[in-house]
Amino acid sequence: MLKGGLTAASSGPAELYFESNATVDLWVDSVSLKPFSKDEWTAHRAESVSAARKKAVRLQATDSAGNPLEGAAVSLDAVRTNFPLGAAVSRYILTNSAYQTWFASRFAVATFENEMKWYSTEPAPGQEDYTVPDAMMAFAKSNGIAVRGHNVFWDQPSQQPRWVQSLPYPQLLAAASRRIRSVVSRYAGQVIGWDVVNENLHFNFYEGRFGWDASTAFYAAARLLDAGSALMFMNEFNTVEQPGDMAALPARYLQRLQQIIAAYPENGAGMAIGLEGHFTTNPNIPYMRAALDTLAQAGIPVWLTEVDVAPGPSQAQHLEEVLREAYAHPAVQGIVIWSAWRPEGCYVMCLTDNSFNNLPQGDVVDRLIAEWRATPRAGSTDAQGYFEAELVHGEYKVTVSHPALNSSISRSVKVELGSGSDHYFIDMQV
């Protein structure tokens, strides 16, 4: 089955044209084209958010004999939200307190924009310097921020350290082996994921030098060097952004992923899908959803890892559409926004000005953080002792008190994805 989506720029007659380079005849048995309004799309997305990110919780307060307590006061205070939202960060955070405060108050995940890349940590052969990424890691740890390891290798020829590009085979093999041992061993257990080979659908520097299975060997080596819980990402651009980029179509992504998994330890356990998400001025949201549906068939975690939207009059609006679409998809387990601040400007999209006052894009992010965050709830139990609420996945501190008591009872509950509702019993000693 082929599935996709499109947005028509104008109304009127149209033809659907199917083209294939297959060596056999393909016959279309059935075609369904369903129109939808903006309101219908938004309503469906809201339903998906409720199913994927929220859960019905039922608390019951009882006395020591198991009898329900009516009128017990219940409060749920949010401790932690499960869904990780992060942003890229630059070395300037080490010396700018305003940047530190702005970032740490918002994001749960950081990706170092360039500071962990090979050309930054070994600018000359054998001269490794991890001073900057070590300091950035220390900042993240001190603020409870998780870090994505970006990246071990980059398959684009122009993004190699200058001294690497022309190395003969034996020296390149030795340098690459030293690189992966160095960076992965150094940060093993400290990162939540690794972009092991960046953009290996569009580029093939290492495959051209080492053979078609170069990426596979790197992923297997990274897993051995960091055998913990870190996810190993295949990170690529245009897979969800551009339906016209044939090199990065979802089907090609999955094909490449399966090649890596076939030779990967434990049949691909710990592999993950990384989708950069560098969108143009008019993101194709229906295509994005269809692409995510296709990629979700792999059954492994999906992250949007470098989200930005090209400048334009509707940049903030389009950013919100992209972020909401990603958050609503059940396969997506995290989002990182590509907005590392530098005095001279960001890569494509900034969230703030140089005084860390929000730009419209920053206002969008703040609004979504508030909406997606686990929020406090309060109420009282009914005649059967029940209190019910729909809660965002996360950890909560539940406090229950009753007029007949001079004290309260507190406990921690975790609201996580699963079928049905969660049912908790709170025993009050009355």
UniProtKB/TrEMBL annotation:
<feature type="domain" description="GH10">
    <location>
        <begin position="70"/>
        <end position="368"/>
    </location>
</feature>
<keyword id="KW-0119">Carbohydrate metabolism</keyword>
<dbReference type="GO" id="GO:0000272">
    <property type="term" value="P:polysaccharide catabolic process"/>
</dbReference>
<dbReference type="InterPro" id="IPR017853">
    <property type="entry name" value="GH"/>
</dbReference>
<protein>
    <recommendedName>
        <fullName>GH10 domain-containing protein</fullName>
    </recommendedName>
</protein>
<dbReference type="InterPro" id="IPR001000">
    <property type="entry name" value="GH10_dom"/>
</dbReference>
<dbReference type="GO" id="GO:0031176">
    <property type="term" value="F:endo-1,4-beta-xylanase activity"/>
</dbReference>
<dbReference type="InterPro" id="IPR044846">
    <property type="entry name" value="GH10"/>
</dbReference>
<keyword id="KW-0624">Polysaccharide degradation</keyword>
<keyword id="KW-0378">Hydrolase</keyword>
<dbReference type="Pfam" id="PF00331">
    <property type="entry name" value="Glyco_hydro_10"/>
</dbReference>
<comment type="similarity">
    <text>Belongs to the glycosyl hydrolase 10 (cellulase F) family.</text>
</comment>
